[in-house]
Amino acid sequence: TRRRGLALGISGALALGGVVFGLEGQMQWRTPVDPSQSSDGVVQDFPGGIRWHRWSKGAVTKAREAGHPVLVDFTAKWCLTCIANKKTSIDIESVRAVLAENDFKVFRADYTQRSDKITKELHSLGRAGVPLVLVFPRDKKSEPQMLPELLTPDIVLNALSKAAG
């Protein structure tokens, strides 16, 4: 009985080790796949939602030089205000229609991992963190409109209409 208990203990430890090895090493369970992320850096939160491009200063500059109005959403998955803004005022049908009709380029600056590049940009804009939504007009010489932290559909739609000019 003593040997049997020892054998069961060793078997249990080996089985547990196999499970941990499988989860940690082979299945990479702590690095979940983001099904909304495509290989070209475009993110869509749900089918039919806004197709967000990965933000960079260079990408915004390039879009503006091509004559596009631009929307940039500095956001994070842990930011409750960001999530509320997106669900109630940004990624909604009326906003998606205005973005499409006016050939807006849309960028998401994902601050979930607190990127140094995004931190630097936020600080240059006088902000300590997210949320921050910028709307750049079609005229590349004009400054972007910085939207308030709490958004409504009207605030977003008015800013987009003004930028589309």
Notes on the protein architecture:
By secondary structure, this protein is an alpha/beta fold. The protein folds into 2 domains: 1-32; 42-164, Glutaredoxin, CATH 3.40.30.10. It has 6 helices and 6 strands; from the N terminus they run H-E-E-H-E-H-H-E-H-E-E-H. It starts with a helix and ends with a helix. Mean pLDDT is 88; it is low at 25-38.
Summarize the structure.
The chain is an alpha/beta fold and 165 residues long. Helices cover 45% and strands 16% of the residues.
SSE layout:
Elements: H1 2-26, E1 42-44, E2 51-54, H2 57-65, E3 70-75, H3 80-90, H4 93-101, E4 105-110, H5 116-124, E5 132-136, E6 145-146, H6 153-164
Parallel strand pairs: 2-4, 3-4
Antiparallel strand pairs: 1-2, 3-5, 5-6
Helix pairs in contact: 4-6
What are the key terms here?
six-stranded mixed β-sheet, elongated, 16% strand, alpha/beta, 6 helices, 165 residues, Glutaredoxin
Give me the side-by-side strand order of the main sheet: 1-2-4-3-5-6
Give the averaged pLDDT, no decimals: 88
CATH architecture of the largest domain: 3-Layer(aba) Sandwich
Instruction: Determine the strand fraction and express it as a percent band.
Output: 15-25%
Shape label? elongated
Predict the CATH topology of the largest domain. Answer: Glutaredoxin
CATH superfamily of the largest domain: Glutaredoxin
CA-to-CA gap between the ends?
84 Å
Strand-pairing-aware structural class: alpha/beta
What's the assembly state of these chains? single chain
Strand and helix order: HEEHEHHEHEEH
* Radius of gyration based on Cα positions: 23 Å
CATH class categorisation of the largest domain:
Alpha Beta
